[in-house]
Design brief:
By secondary structure, the protein is α+β, with helices and mostly antiparallel strands. The chain has seven helices and 14 strands. It has two domains: about 30-175, Orthogonal Bundle (Lysozyme); about 180-299, Trefoil (Acidic Fibroblast Growth Factor, subunit A) (Trefoil), CATH 2.80.10. The longest helix has 15 residues, at about 50-65.
C-alpha cells in the first residue's frame, strides 16, 4: 500500500502518552467536506452536537481531518487521529487501523474506515467514551477526547477547543435537517411557501421542507423563507410559522450549549407543545426550561 503524502506542519501535539499517539497538523488544508462527513458520522451514532464537535476539534488539530495524513518529519502519526506506527496504527492486538481495515475489506486510508475505527475503539475499549457522553459543553467534550482518546503529550488544548467551537457554530450553516424529540425533524408543513405556513414536527424524510440553513443574521431559512415567531410574539405558546425573511428579531435563533434554540427578542425557546411528538405538532416558543421538548440538533 502506497503511503499518501501530505504537506503537514506540527502544530500542537508532541511527546507520547498511552499508546504513543503523536503529531498534529495545521487546519490550513482542512477539507470542509471531510469535517461535515465526520461530524454527521458521530451525530448519526447518537452523540450530541457538542460531543461530536469536541471530537472534530481534536481531529482538526491532529490531521485537518485528512485520512492520508502522515506526521511531519517522518514521525509515527498516521490518519485523522494520528494513530502511531508500532501501536494503534498497525500493531496493537485487535486495536489497530490496519488490522481493522482488513476485517472490513477496506483501505486503512479511507475516511469512512478511520471514522468507523474510532467508533470501534470507543465502544470496545472505552478511551473515555462514558465520560465523553456525559459532557455538557463543547470544551469539556474536547478535553475528554484529547486526554482519554488522543492521549497526546503537549496537546495545545486551547486550539483544539477553538476548532471544536468553530465546528459547533459552522454545523448550522451546512443546510441540514434539525432533529428534535422522538428523532423527528423540524418541517415546513406541506413544503408550503406562503407566509404563515406552520412549522411543525414530522418524520424525517430528506425533503427540502426539512433542510434549514443558518443565515449570518441568526435566522434559519428553508424554501426561500424564514422560521418566524408569529406577529413577533413574546408570550408562551406563540406559534412558529414560515415567513418572508425580514431580519427582525422574530426570526433570530440563538443556539445554546444545552441544545436549545433561543429567540433573544422574546427570551424564550423553540418548543414542542406538551412534548407532543405526533406528526404535525406545530412548534411554539416557551419559557426556556432545558427539557427534551426544547432540545434540537443538526442531523
Amino acid at each position: 500500500m502506497l503511503l499518501l503524502s501530505l504537506s503537514i506542519t506540527v502544530a500542537g501535539c508532541s511527546g507520547t502518552g498511552g499508546d504513543g499517539d503523536v503529531g498534529s497538523s495545521s487546519a490550513a488544508s482542512t477539507s470542509a467536506a471531510n469535517e461535515k462527513q465526520a461530524y454527521e458520522f458521530f451525530v448519526a451514532k447518537g452523540l450530541e452536537d457538542l460531543q461530536s464537535s469536541g471530537i472534530l476539534g481534536n481531529l482538526m488539530q491532529e490531521s485537518s481531518v485528512q485520512p492520508g495524513a502522515i506526521q511531519f518529519g517522518g514521525g509515527p502519526g498516521r490518519g485523522i487521529a494520528q494513530w502511531s506506527v508500532g501501536g494503534r496504527w498497525d500493531t496493537s492486538f485487535h486495536d489497530n487501523v490496519v488490522w481493522y481495515a482488513g476485517t472490513k475489506g477496506m483501505s486503512p486510508w479511507s475516511l469512512e474506515l478511520q471514522l468507523d475505527f474510532i467508533w470501534y475503539e470507543l465502544t470496545t475499549f472505552g478511551y473515555g467514551f462514558s465520560a465523553l457522553r456525559g459532557t455538557r459543553t463543547v470544551a469539556d467534550a474536547t478535553v475528554v477526547f484529547q486526554d482519554d482518546y488522543e492521549i497526546c503529550g503537549t496537546c495545545d488544548q486551547t486550539t483544539r477547543i477553538n476548532y471544536a467551537d468553530s465546528i459547533y457554530s459552522e454545523r448550522l450553516h451546512w443546510g441540514e435537517p434539525i432533529v428534535g424529540p422522538a428523532g423527528k425533524c423540524i418541517d415546513d408543513r406541506g413544503a408550503g411557501t406562503a407566509d404563515g405556513t406552520p412549522i411543525q414536527l414530522y418524520d424525517c424524510n430528506g425533503t427540502n421542507a426539512q433542510v434549514w440553513t443558518a443565515n449570518s443574521n441568526g435566522s434559519f431559512g428553508a424554501l426561500g423563507k424564514c422560521m418566524d415567531v408569529t406577529h413577533g410574539g413574546t408570550t408562551d405558546g406563540t406559534l412558529i410559522q414560515l415567513y418572508t425573511c425580514n431580519g427582525t428579531g422574530s426570526q433570530v435563533w440563538q443556539p445554546e450549549s444545552n441544545g436549545s434554540l433561543r429567540n433573544p427578542q422574546s427570551g424564550k425557546c423553540l418548543d414542542l407543545p406538551g412534548g407532543d411528538t405526533d406528526n404535525g405538532a406545530q412548534l411554539q416558543i416557551y419559557t426556556c426550561n432545558g427539557t427534551g421538548s426544547q432540545v434540537w440538533h443538526v442531523l
